[in-house]
Amino acid sequence: MKISVIGCGYLGAVHAAAMAHLGHSTVGVDVDPAKVEALTQGQAPFFEPGFPELLQESLGSGQLSFTLAPAPEELAQVDLHFIAVGTPQSEDGKAANLSYVEAALEMILQAIPEQRKAQASAQEPATVIVGKSTVPVGTASRLAARAAEEGALLLWNPEFLREGFAVADTLHPDRLVYGLPDDPLAARAGQAALDQVYAPLLAEGIERLTMNYPTAELVKVAANSFLATKISFINAMAELCEATGGNVTELAEAIGYDERIGSKFLRAGVGFGGGCLPKDIRAFMARAQELGVEDAVSFLRDVDAINQRRRDRVVSESLKALGGSAQGKRVAVLGAAFKPNSDDIRDSPALEVAARLAEAGARVQISDPQALAGVAARHPELVCCPDPYEALEGAQLVLLLTEWSDFLQLDPLRAASCVAQAQIIDGRNALDPAAWEAAGWSYAGLGR
Ligand code: UGA
User: Fold this and answer.
1) Considering only 66-75, 88-97, 127-136, 184-193, which range has the smallest mean pLDDT?
2) Where would I find the H helices in 342-404?
3) Counting beta carbons within 10 angstroms of the beta carbon of residue 204, is it exposed (0 to 12), middle (13 to 18) or buried (19 or more)?
4) Is 146 helix (H, G, I), strand (E, B) or coil?
5) For the segment 313-370, what is each residue's pLDDT rounded down to a tens digit?
6) What integer is the mean pLDDT of 368-393?
7) 29 alpha carbon to ligand 1 midpoint, in Å?
């Protein structure tokens, strides 16, 4: 098929390369000239394991290209368009900003030739447009009505990929969700189009679930809300452990043996961040309020608050460890990305803690295997150290805030020889306390 992917961020760029890998002739579209240029050269504009290889393979096969502004004639030849642009938190509130999604839709609709619009029917729409961006429930129905005015069929196909595993999650997702229109003829045409796109995945036995628009939109936010709730639940238990002398790591392991609970996503620590979980739960609350059902998701306010309190806790424990004031002290922060295997610093707990300690007067020496370029650009007050041992130099306190394997492999003895004071706060409960204590460190985990 001829496919376009509008928006080439973490989601769209990987999706475009994956579509080409599946054999579709694919064009990726983005408004950022630097991004388009890099992708065209086969260079990933962000760190994502396995993506450069997939990108180069797809470019090499001649099936993939990128463009800033596709000509309408070019867009008109496309069989199916994916919209994969961002829906960031709006500047003036918690709701999602849908302007990029709306602009992408209009660009596609404007390119449809008049004659094709006139001949369009439910079975044979003028073009097929598939939304992948995370949107407030109700958006797909509204945009589908707009698309129908131009003879186009809109479908919603939410994406569940995790950064750091984006390639595997795109090519081997655990499920495909199709949000389809109520009209049975249009739904059949839409399902057939998506089945054709994903034929190799379906042949592999990947589950395909069909449902109406609001359910598909809700599946996405419900999944992210559940994940956020699971993390905040265990972090709430960490608060109780802190108040009682309990150990949250042992607690999580013990409850995780119950298969109904499961052990994944129960790592207590400095909490969740990134471009998805925090903004998605806020947008969900904002949308529920508009719908008059805010009580149904009012618990998400607590999920958000518990998550924010973890950052506060690391800051206050740090100040305590520094003798009450950070002024003039050296603090080593290991980690800047919101999670390992990513260079994404959006709403990163690690970076927020680092910036707050710098604001409190500390000289913060920060290390991260991939995120330092972003840190240097946005936080000139932080001292960037590519080598983690360099970050430890002269530090009175060390914070582990992103559990990169590079940091988990640090030698506690060598680390102790670099610092001024061997005290570490493990904000991810990822280190072996016994090994660090044996090397002379004073070790504190969160919630244990
Ligand atoms: C999340 C979802 O996991 C994906 O399924 C979804 O597609 C994506 O958002 C999205 O909406 O696009 P992602 O943001 O890449 O993916 O990150 P996660 O792996 O979910 O981690 C989120 C945060 O939770 C990280 O800051 C991580 O450190 C933290 N976390 C995770 C914990 O604090 N404890 C855990 O046990 C697990």
Assistant:
1) 88-97
2) 349-359, 372-378, 388-392
3) exposed
4) helix
5) 999 999 999 999 999 999 999 999 999 999 999 999 999 999 999 999 999 999 999 9
6) 98
7) 26
The model's pTM is 0.96
The Cβ of residue 108 has, within 10 Å, a number of other Cβ atoms equal to: 25
Cα separation, 101 vs 218, in Å, equals: 17
pLDDT given for residue 91 in this prediction: 85
| Ligand 1 atom with least separation from CA of 277 | 9
Question: Measured from the CA of 267, which atom of ligand 1 is nearest?
Answer: 36
Q: Return the CA Rg of the chain.
A: 24
Does residue 54 carry a pLDDT above 90? yes
The residue among 127, 147, 173 whose CA lies nearest residue 157 is 173
User: In the structure, what pLDDT confidence band is assigned to residue 148 with cuts at 50, 70 and 90?
Assistant: very high
pLDDT of amino acid 353: 98
Dist. CA 39 → ligand 1 center (Å): 25
CA 66: distance to chain centroid?
A: 23
Q: State if residue 339 touches ligand 1 by the CB under 6 angstroms criterion.
A: yes
Query: Is the CB of residue 276 below 6 angstroms from any atom belonging to ligand 1?
Result: yes
The candidate with the shortest Cα–Cα distance to 133, out of 114, 112, 155, 153, is 155
Cβ burial of 428 (10 Å; 0-12, 13-18, 19+) is buried
Nearest C-alpha neighbor of 154 from the set 183, 115, 176, 174: 183
Tens of pLDDT, residue by residue over 206-251, are 999 999 999 999 999 999 999 999 999 999 999 999 999 999 999 9
Residue nearest to atom 10 of ligand 1 (CA): 276
Residue 276 bears catalytic tag: yes
What lies within 8 Å, CB to CB, of 391 at 6+ separation is 332, 333, 334, 365, 366, 367, 383, 385
pLDDT at 93 over 90: no
Nearest residue to 444 via CA among 314, 255, 254: 314
CB atoms within 10 A of CB 53: 13
> 176 - beta bridge partners?
208
Is the per-residue pLDDT at 89 higher than 90?
no
What lies within 8 Å, CB to CB, of 334 at 6+ separation is 366, 367, 368, 388, 391, 398, 399, 400, 401, 402, 404, 407, 410
Q: State the Cα–Cα distance between residues 239 and 242, nearest whole angstrom.
A: 5
269 lines ligand 1 (CB under 6 A): yes
| Residue whose entry in the numeric block shows the structure tokens 């306190």 | 397
